[in-house]
Design brief:
The chain has 365 residues and is an alpha/beta fold. The protein has 13 helices and 9 strands.
């Protein structure tokens, strides 16, 4: 008698949702993008009426300048979505055939399309059995990861969609990220040496934040600075001259420092060539392609600084993508919020996702 055919087990469908900030996709989108950005209570910590007024004022003023200057330099729109999708595609390819699961990557932007409500619908329509949240910013900040999680959770609730979810809140010292970073910086360092500059200074330039946000319990600065140390060590250069600095300062508040301008001025005074690496960004966009490649370079030349090199972001570097794939495979069986390694790496900061109670998380959302 023939044996009854056994049903094959249906592979688990896992949606990997990759968070990023987003950017305007046309000149007309610059103003509403900026409005969305400055209306975020994690960015401007004021009551809604005051936040709305200030956001509108800043968006009106900056949109005119950025349309002609910043975004005008790169064709009137941000390449952030395109570059994020390239990373997502590379990760999905790397995950293909991993065990019995079927992986599909999605990119969810915080301040411009495609935003959380749209991606929640796409994940639901795909029929995901589980969601894994993977921010494309390695360091945790209330202004990035936390803010994106807030709107994602709200969109899930509004859609009435509830599936098991694992969230990777940060991975600032991920092996693949560190190795890819070290290789990219080393390539420009060796180029500077070949051009005749002795012992160039490496500047790890991260996006800045107001001091008040750090003092309020944000681990971003600590993670940026610890990560820079690890990248510098991974370069394998004895007595490497390096420093950390912060770019993109806006507004009258006191920001964390030293600023990138201050470090460029110090390098010019010391007669040093510089290799700048934006280690808080994982793909190219306006703050690397315009701010670093054009604006800061021009400032450095005015200061009399010679030998200006900029290391590329990790983008789709095979080691970075492999590092992300290993992160996904490690965390896919977990539920809840975890930093890489499963232990809090926020020091004593109060706003660490892992350290907050369920009641605190609900209140924050």
């Amino acid at each position: 008698m023939a044996k009854a055919a056994t049903k094959s087990k249906k592979p688990q469908k896992i949606a990997v949702v990759m968070f990023n900030l987003g950017g305007p996709d046309s000149p007309n989108a610059i103003k509403p993008f900026l409005m969305n950005f400055f209306m975020d209570k994690n960015i401007i910590q004021l009551p809604i009426p005051f936040r709305c007024f200030l956001a509108a004022f800043i968006a009106n003023r900056r949109s005119k300048r950025e349309a002609g200057e910043s975004y005008g330099e790169i064709g009137g729109s941000s390449p952030l979505l395109e570059n994020s999708r390239k990373q997502a595609k590379a990760l999905e390819k790397s995950l293909k055939g991993s065990g019995d699961a079927q992986y599909k990557t999605f990119v969810s932007m915080r301040y411009w399309h495609p935003m959380a409500p749209q991606i929640v619908r796409e994940v639901r329509d795909w029929g995901a059995d589980k969601i894994l949240i993977l921010p494309l910013y390695p360091q945790f900040s209330t202004t990035t990861t936390w803010s994106s999680l807030e709107v994602w959770n709200k969109a899930m609730f509004q859609a009435g969609y509830d599936v098991p979810t694992s969230t990777i809140c940060c991975y600032p010292e991920n092996k693949g990220f560190i190795q890819a970073s070290a290789e990219n910086v080393r390539a420009q360092y060796d180029r500077a040496i070949k051009d005749g500059y002795k012992n160039p200074r490496v500047l790890f330039s991260a996006h800045g934040l107001p001091e008040s946000i750090i003092k309020d319990g944000d681990p971003y600065q600590m993670q940026c600075e610890n990560g820079a140390k690890v990248i510098a060590k991974a370069m394998g250069i004895k007595d490497l001259d390096w420093a950390i600095c912060y770019q993109s300062r806006v507004g009258p508040k006191k920001w964390i420092g030293p600023s990138t301008e201050e470090e460029l001025e110090r390098a010019a005074h010391d007669g040093k060539a510089v290799v700048i690496y934006p280690h808080a960004f994982t793909q190219e966009h306006v703050e690397t392609l315009v701010e670093l490649d054009i604006e800061y370079k021009e400032e450095a030349e005015k200061m009399g600084q010679h030998g200006y090199y900029r290391a590329a972001t990790v983008s789709t570097h095979p080691k970075f993508i492999d590092g992300l794939a290993k992160l996904v495979k490690t965390h896919v069986k977990k539920l809840g919020v975890y930093a890489e390694g499963g232990k809090p790496i926020c020091g004593n900061f109060e706003k660490c996702c892992m350290l907050m109670t369920d009641a605190e998380k609900k209140k924050a959302a």
